[in-house]
């Protein structure tokens, strides 16, 4: 008896292990795995250059895992999915849910159109520990503060589902491959700025598993103490793997719990709460779809931004004259990644010291980050700007010199990405403008020539930001 054909639509779940949609499709019958480059979404919703680089290599890895059976398409899924159902004579379509507003609207329309043709359609949660629609306050309201959301809403809800193993054997349909080639999707950048990424990253399910294993064995036991030091590998660096679904948060959650003998370990709790912040970002985006473009706190609609283009450009190029800021922006350009502590520092400097609209920073990160994630990116930028839910108060302005001296005490991080400062002594590595002339000369640093002078006075710009905020509060 011929088994029915089903389509498995891969999106942000580029893995075989712990993939509920793939498991369900395989149980249903023979499988046709597909990926669609969605051209119907708005330009600002399209992945940035760095993310597309990752996506290309992640799809390559997934296709290898699927023994070359992954079929690639480009176009509007609302039209393509019904067409493919007809061409493959598919009796069912399976996918794992996405939670961005545009994706929810798209998927809802596709589900409705498939049901009208009597094609079975099922979707699953494969990317979140707790779906946003399932967590509510006791009065039915939506959480807007992280700690009660996580401690009361999530941890007191049902436990995250346990990961499912890879299918023992995937039965692929014998239908012909009618898709296009991966290369024809033109995901790889035309410029060679991404050439160094392969020295730092291994996209795909195997790379994700390796990063998780390395973290558990080398850094997890000291996570709370080491996670803020950018010169050491104290974090998991799993964010791009999680975004593309090469590993599920459920796999990470239980792998960490299994690795610690004591469930009340402070490092374990600290790391799991960071997974909780990822969940909170998706929760906010689901309930407040305008999060990426509009101030969560409407009071900031009256804020007066300076938006000096030359200062913004200096920031993007790591040429602000503030060493820890420049190091972070150069790390981003060279590796497609930036340490989380440094993300907060560079974000605060842009929004508060330079008074550049947080949305400009969000867009730059969207294009340059390998882990660019609509929910996390927008929620984090609004947090640092002070305009978001559970945001840092606006008057909390990171002093990049003090931050550098605290978390990069010997300037190892700065010297790695700002090699022109490599000979500066620890005392002045984070504030070279204060160094005596003989110290600068000995280090070979000429401010304004081989390293820029600061584009903003930290004390004066801090006060300017506070004055702007006070003026906004009065409106």
From TrEMBL:
Residues 4-129 form the Photolyase/cryptochrome alpha/beta domain. It catalyses: cyclobutadipyrimidine (in DNA) = 2 pyrimidine residues (in DNA). This is Deoxyribodipyrimidine photo-lyase. The record marks 305, 358, 381 as: Electron transfer via tryptophanyl radical. Binds 1 FAD per subunit. FAD binds at residues 223, 235-239, 271, 371-373. One of its GO terms (biological process) is photoreactive repair.
């Amino acid at each position: 008896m011929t088994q029915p054909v089903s389509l498995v639509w891969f999106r942000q779940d580029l893995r075989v292990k712990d993939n509920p949609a793939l498991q369900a499709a395989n149980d249903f019958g023979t499988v046709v795995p597909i990926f669609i480059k969605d051209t119907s979404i708005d330009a600002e919703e399209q992945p940035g250059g760095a993310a597309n680089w990752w996506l290309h290599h992640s799809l390559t890895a997934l296709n290898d895992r699927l023994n070359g059976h992954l079929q690639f398409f480009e176009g509007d899924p609302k039209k393509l999915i019904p067409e493919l159902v007809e061409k493959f004579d598919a009796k069912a379509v399976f996918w794992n849910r996405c939670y961005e507003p545009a994706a929810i609207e798209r998927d809802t329309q596709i589900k409705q159109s498939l049901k009208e043709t009597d094609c079975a359609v099922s979707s699953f949660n494969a990317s979140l520990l707790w779906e946003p629609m399932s967590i509510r306050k006791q009065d039915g309201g939506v959480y807007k503060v992280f700690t009660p959301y996580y401690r009361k809403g999530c941890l007191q809800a049902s436990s995250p589902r346990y990961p499912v193993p890879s299918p023992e054997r995937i039965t692929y349909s014998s239908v012909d491959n009618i898709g296009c080639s991966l290369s024809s999707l033109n995901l790889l950048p035309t410029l060679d700025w991404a050439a160094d990424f392969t020295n730092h990253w291994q996209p795909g399910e195997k790379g994700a598993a390796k990063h998780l294993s390395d973290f558990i064995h080398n850094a997890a036991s000291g996570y709370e103490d080491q996670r803020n030091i950018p010169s050491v590998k104290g974090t998991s660096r799993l964010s791009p793997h999680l975004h593309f679904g090469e590993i599920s948060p459920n796999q990470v959650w239980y792998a960490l719990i299994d690795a610690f003998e004591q469930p009340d370990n402070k490092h374990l709790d600290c790391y799991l709460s960071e997974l909780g912040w990822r969940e909170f970002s998706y929760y906010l985006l689901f309930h407040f779809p305008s999060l990426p473009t509009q101030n969560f706190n409407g009071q900031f609609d009256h804020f007066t931004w300076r938006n000096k283009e030359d200062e913004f450009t200096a920031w993007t190029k790591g040429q602000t004259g503030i060493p820890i800021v420049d190091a972070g922006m150069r790390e981003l350009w060279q590796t497609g990644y930036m340490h989380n502590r440094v993300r907060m520092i560079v974000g605060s400097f842009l929004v508060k010291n330079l008074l550049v609209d947080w949305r400009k920073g969000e867009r730059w990160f969207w294009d340059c980050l390998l882990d660019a994630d609509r929910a996390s990116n927008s929620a984090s930028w609004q947090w640092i700007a002070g305009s978001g839910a559970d945001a840092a108060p606006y008057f909390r302005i990171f002093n990049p010199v003090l931050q550098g001296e605290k978390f990069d005490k010997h300037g190892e991080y700065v010297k790695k990405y700002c090699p022109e400062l490599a000979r500066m002594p620890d005392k002045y590595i984070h504030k070279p403008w204060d160094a005596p002339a003989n110290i600068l000369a000995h280090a070979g640093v000429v401010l304004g020539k081989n390293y820029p002078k600061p584009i903003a006075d930290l004390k004066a710009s801090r006060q300017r930001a506070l004055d702007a905020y006070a003026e906004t509060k009065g409106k």
